[in-house]
Write a structure and sequence with these properties.
Number of domains: 1
Bound molecules: pyridoxal-5'-phosphate
Number of strands: 8
Shape: globular
Order of helices and strands: HEHEHEHEHEHEHEHEH
Strand order of the largest sheet: 2-3-4-5-6-7
Distance between the termini: 7 Å
CATH architecture: Alpha-Beta Barrel
Number of helices: 9
CATH superfamily: Alanine racemase
Radius of gyration: 17 Å
Structural class: alpha/beta
Length: about 230
């Protein structure tokens, strides 16, 4: 694990990248949130983020997040960004403030039932496999209307917007196409269903600039902040 000083320096660089990207396309700098991704890093990663003034962290596994949650006494929002098996939905509802990786109707319905039992309204994002990457989870573009209708009908879920992970490809045009695809999809669904769907969670260490240019409201960054996974 890197030192806090090194983390601060990394954070400064990431903020500069966000700034430059926003200015380059005429967006307000505060229209993009930075979600530090603490997965595969120890609890210190969460402490660093909070100490530096960040208010949420992203984790991709329920068990790992629960361990950190149990050890961490302070206030921070926990967001789940990794694939969730339906049988872990109850634990996820208990622990996370938002689940970004809702990628099947089965999971959506299970989360709704668990949230109802917990007497909680759970914020979610619908994960879309915009790049139609066979190695990635998420609804296909053609399944998104049905997913959104199910989410709206689910009384214990609150759908904030959409999330995607770009296909793994060195060519940034591939990421760009995926991000613009998600934005266009959001615009269409938002108009059709008269829903704000304000959150567009897209962009990571390697492609945050193209994501911001395409309209991302939240980038999820691990490597650029914490270094390679430890
Ligand atoms: C790990 C992860 C990230 C962070 O990726 P980096 O390239 O390390 O910035 C973002 N989103 C998801 C869904 C992840 O699993």
């Amino acid at each position: 694990m890197i030192s806090f000083r090194a983390f601060e320096s990394n954070l400064k660089q990431v903020k500069t990248r966000i700034n430059t990207a926003c200015v380059g396309v005429g967006r307000a700098v505060d229209s993009v949130q930075l979600l530090p991704v603490t997965k595969n890093h120890p609890l210190d990663a969460v402490l660093y983020a909070v100490r530096a003034g960040l208010t949420a962290v992203g984790e991709n596994r329920v068990q790992e997040a629960s361990q950190k949650h149990a050890q961490y006494p302070g206030e921070v929002r926990w967001e789940l960004i990794g694939h969730l098996q339906s049988n872990k939905a109850k634990d996820a509802v208990a622990m996370f403030d938002r689940v970004q990786s809702v990628d099947s109707l089965k999971l959506l319905n299970r989360l709704n039932r668990c949230a109802a039992q917990a007497e909680k309204k759970l914020s979610i994002l619908l994960q879309c496999n915009t790049g139609a990457d066979p190695n990635k989870h998420g609804f296909r573009v053609g399944e998104m209307e049905a997913a959104l209708e199910a989410a709206v009908a689910a009384e214990s879920l609150q759908v904030d917007g959409l999330m995607t992970i770009a296909p793994l490809d060195d060519d940034l045009d591939v990421a760009k196409a995926a991000f613009e695809g998600l934005r266009d999809l959001r615009d269409r669904l938002s108009g059709e269903y008269k829903l704000p769907l304000t959150e567009l969670s897209m962009g990571m260490t390697g492609d945050l600039e193209v994501a911001i240019a395409a309209g991302s409201t939240q980038i999820r960054v691990g490597t650029a902040l914490y270094g390679k996974e430890s």
